[in-house]
Amino acid sequence: MRRLIHFIIFLIFGFSCIDPFDLRTGNQSNALVVDGLITDVTNESYVHLSRSLSFDNSRIQPIYFVPEISAEVKVLDDLGNEVVFSETSPGIYSPSNTLVGTPGRTYTLYILTADGTAYQSNSEKMPGVPLIDSLIYEYHSYEQLVENSQGGYFVDTRYGFKLSVKVDDPEDERNYYRWKISGIYEFFSFIGETFFQCWVPVSRLEPSIRINNDAYFNGNTFTEPLVIIPYDRPTYYMAMVKQMSLSPEAYNFLDELRKQQTNTGSIFDPIPSQIRGNIFNTENPNELVMGYFGASSVVEKSVLIKRFDASGFVSPSPNLLPEFGNCIDLIQGATNVKPPGFP
How many whole angstroms from its chain centre is CA 324? Predict the structure, then answer.
């Protein structure tokens, strides 16, 4: 009831989105694009296959990919165990039987496309991953570029919660980390005097690739800033963090992508299609194949943020008008089934 009162007082509703952006790339048409990962978590291993579309290098335009369908996909480990991946939807391949990777084991991806072309990955050894000690959040102001009603932009001060992860890094080995952050937020709507309560999942919160290695803190406890949790409603927000191990090669590949994302010159340079992964054509190694096949151990931790209380009982920013209707119909993916962990 107290959360409902907070909602009524502040009349806060809103949404966030990520807009696609256009960029110029090299003239690499019809290249195979591979996104594959083996983990030690049930039902989280996958292989995604697609083809880059043909495009004109003289113009700036969006990049699109088409699914690579009807391929034969399998993964072999260093003990000779084989797992076949079946196409569950166009271009998306999942293990035909339960696959749970093992830290210390080595995995290799094999692909045979519908036209009979064979591809293979370099072998990837799955490193172990340290546990997450804790997740830390603090009320935080930041500047955001906001579009006005005339189509122009201005810099506005917003408030949220800076989320960081605390980890005890082991001293007997080099560790390479990646973090993925998702969330679930609670919101209310109304029809007349009837209020509705819903929860909305957010599949990705990090605006760019979050990676690090222990070159400067090997064997010590470190804190890594991850993301700003928005404060746009005085309601609960659950943040879920996956901490993943990386091989040195996977780290270097992701680091190149990260540098491209944060390039201070132009988003059109360097050419993203020139970043080579670990996949190759077995008959023609010179063929450009985009993407990476990795093997990661994963640990997870979540934290529930009582945003109104954690802010010091101040009004959220921005304050948006409430929406009329049943909340389950107002935001895509909303559910009226309370997720585990919410009061």
Answer: 31
